[in-house]
Amino acid sequence: MKRRDNMSYKEQLDLDRIPAHVAIIMDGNGRWAKQRGRERSYGHQAGAETVHVIAEEAARLGVKYLTLYTFSTENWGRPAEEVTALMGLLFDSIEEETFMKNNIRFRVIGDTEKLPDYVQDRLNACIDHTDCNSGMTLVLALSYSSRWEIAEAGKQLAQAVKEGEVKVEDIDSHVFAQYLATNFMPDPDLLIRTGGELRLSNYLLWQCAYSELYFCDTYWPDFREEEFCKALCDFQRRERRFGKTSEQIG
Question: Has 14 been annotated as catalytic?
Answer without folding.
Answer: no
